[in-house]
Design brief:
CvfB_fam, S1-like domain-containing RNA-binding protein, 12% helix, OB fold (Dihydrolipoamide Acetyltransferase, E2P), 5-stranded antiparallel β-sheet, CvfB_S1_st, 3 helices, NA-bd_OB-fold
């Protein structure tokens, strides 16, 4: 199946006046216009292309790189507002349409907005939305404390910098934890500083704790200190026990205690780990 709004690796089937026709294993075919074809190619070669809809709403291939892909967020420039909605520059020849009903606030020509790309189920067209909260959730988190994450800064307030975490969740970098110039639209690495009881995610841009210690290892060391130097967990403990006591995965736990053991900060016993 040729997937709309995504990169597809397709085979060059034949060359015609309009361009190269590409196909998949299911005999689906799409046109790659001549202006996007590679300098060197042969019939039968595989090529990676992005698929979207042309001005006549037909699937079309391009070797250009869009600023965002299906089910992801991007920071886009509004190039026009018409009676139908707004049109955003997303790096392709045909601009991305954002209908009025999908605008968090009325868009203005020349401004920049965080936009989510999805497929409208009624029209099967690629559409943008600036109502980002509709595509984020913090009920079922996929991150844990001290984990490195990818963030997109959505807006700055007096409280701090709001951000999208791994394209899935909402997070916040508190103003007292910001030590560099960051702006709306910035994409960068961050770390989960804390997950609050209501599942709100606190972020920091610097590695939490001691820079010389892997973040989860630093967390476990503090837990050991708080527990009097001993925790009834080791590398053979079941994942649920580790999750319940420390709130992290067994994989992260093993990596962290391996760091502490290598640094001679703990000993691993049959019934748990102990500070040296």
């Amino acid at each position: 199946m040729i997937k709309l709004g995504e990169y597809n690796t397709l085979e060059i089937l034949r060359e015609t006046d309009p361009g190269l026709y590409l196909g998949d294993d299911e005999e689906n075919v799409v046109l790659l216009p001549h202006k996007y074809k590679p300098e060197e190619y042969e019939i039968g070669d595989k090529i990676s292309v992005f698929i979207y809809l042309d001005n006549e709403e037909r699937p079309i291939a391009t070797t250009l790189d869009p600023f965002l892909q299906l089910n992801s967020f991007g920071y886009l420039h509004c190039s026009a507002v018409t009676e139908y909605g707004a049109f955003m520059d997303w790096g392709l020849e045909k601009q991305l349409f954002v209908p009025f009903k999908e605008q968090a606030r009325p868009m203005k020509n020349g401004n920049w907005y965080i936009v989510y790309l999805y497929i409208d189920e009624k029209t099967n067209r690629l559409v943008g939305s600036s109502k980002t909260n509709n595509f984020l959730q913090n009920e079922n988190l996929t991150v844990e404390p001290f984990q490195e994450v990818d963030i997109l800064v959505t807006h700055i307030t007096e409280k701090g910098a709001n951000a999208i975490v791994n394209g899935l969740h909402k997070g916040l970098i508190y103003i007292e934890d910001i030590f560099e110039d960051i702006r709306t639209g910035d994409k960068m690495k961050a770390y989960v500083k804390k997950i609050r009881p209501d599942n709100k995610i606190d972020l920091v841009l610097q590695t939490p704790g001691y820079k010389s210690i892997e973040p989860n290892a630093n967390f476990i060391r503090k837990e050991l200190e708080a527990a009097g130097g001993f925790l009834p967990l080791h590398d053979k403990s079941d994942p649920d026990s580790i999750k319940n006591l420390l709130g992290m995965s067994k994989k992260s736990f093993k990596k962290a205690i391996g760091t502490l053991y290598k640094d001679k900060q703990i000993v691993i016993k049959e019934d748990g780990i102990e500070l040296v």
